[in-house]
Each structure stands twice: as structure tokens, then as C-alpha cells.
């Protein structure tokens, strides 16, 4: 899904993707790409959010695996007025790289299913899959959409700093238009629309004359747009990068210019 995000975003003019303090809006192509990313990527603030969710028991005819187009049977509190549910599986657990505090859990996207019939076991039709559906996979309601059309950079921003801790569906190096996971969220003051400056730590080199180890100055290396916040984590989109970014690079709230 990372490739889908990249392809869609490449249609968007880079200049419009940056949100200046005046509140210029994201262009429609970028809005669509972010919403597609959020369809396939999700963080849960508590493991109970997944452990207590409805779960799939079996596919049709008692088979243990389900594929696109098949019916599956689930147990739990499913709402007939909710037309579609996301199918998820427990994924990576996020902890703070400095304090080791538990921050959240990634819900791995398996697909979507449409509610069909209620009963002791609820029947759903699998609409989309990224891999085979298994017994025990959880069913979650759709996330509320981010109001990207009205997304504006806050004019008054507290100083917040943290680290990039993951690349969803990731690679090792991060570039323009990649989405990243940040170890700060709503409790820290981050909101959708915040612009963040990415800072790469200075490399350690050896002074060829003295033989001593020298640390080069830190370097501002890119800009992130926060587009989804959770309690302790957030998603950010790389708007600009002067060099390749990486997991564990630092960020801080960007200084606004008038």
C-alpha cells in the first residue's frame, strides 16, 4: 500500500503540499492519498481495543481461511447499521525509544468485510484482502476521517520534540511523500496540521591529525506534516527532505515565520 500512497501523491504539486502559517489547504490529490493511507494503516492506543473487538471464527463451509469474495462468520458485538468493517491482526508494539514506555500497537491491515446477516454468528462478505483472513482476526469500525480540506497549521505551537520510530509497511530510508510514525501524540500537544522539522544527528568522525573522535553538528534535514494523531503516537507525511531520513531521526515543531 506504500506504493499506492506514493503514486497518488506524485500527482500533487509539492508547493501546495506545504502548509504555510496562513493556512493554505492541501490539494485534493494529496488529501485523497492520505485518506487511502489511513484506510490501510491504524494505531490502537490500548491492546484491549483489539483484544475486545469482534473476531472471525471461520470462513464459509467451516474452512479456516477466507479470501476476497468469500463469506466469513464472526462473533462479537457487530452493528448492522455499520456497512463495512476493517479486518485487522495484532502487529508491532510501539515503545518510547528513550523511556521504554508503552505507546500503542499497530493494527495490521488484513482487509475489509461487509455486514450481511446477524445471528449467533454474524455473516460478513470479504471485500478486500491484503493476505488470507484467519480465525481470530479482529473486526474494527472505520476510523473517523481527517478533515483534510480544512487542515491548517496552528499559529500558536508549543515546543514539541521527539523521534521517528517507524515507517509503516516500511523501508530503511525515508524520502519525500513517505508516511512515518512519531513517538508523540495528543497528550504531548501534537495536532493534525502541525509542521515539524526533522533533524539528523551529527555523525561521529575521527580527526586525522589528533586521532580524537569528533561529532559533527546536527543538521536540519526535512519537514513533516502531522496528519493523524493518537493519544501517544502520530502519523506524519514527509513534505521535503534535503537528504535521506531514517528511523530514530529527531523532530521538533517548526518555527513559524510571519
Could you please describe the fold and organization of this structure?
With 258 residues, the protein is mainly beta. The protein folds into 2 domains: 2-27 and 146-253, FlgT, C-terminal domain (Thrombin, subunit H, Beta Barrel); 48-140, no CATH class. The protein has 4 helices and 17 strands. Strand 12 (204-206) and strand 13 (213-215) form a beta hairpin. Helix 1 (2-9) packs antiparallel against helix 3 (28-40). Helix content is 11%, strand content 40%. Strands 1, 2, 3, 4, 5, 6 and 7 form a 7-stranded antiparallel beta sheet that branches. A 6-stranded antiparallel beta barrel has the order 8-10-15-14-11-17. InterPro entries: Bact_Kbp. Keywords: Signal.
SSE-based structural type:
mainly beta
The largest β sheet comes out as: 7 strands, antiparallel
CATH architectural label of the largest domain = Beta Barrel
Domain tally: 2
Radius of gyration: 21 Å
Order of helices and strands: HHHEHEEEEEEEEEEEEEEEE
Approximate shape? elongated
The poorly predicted ranges are 1-22
Counted beta strands: 17
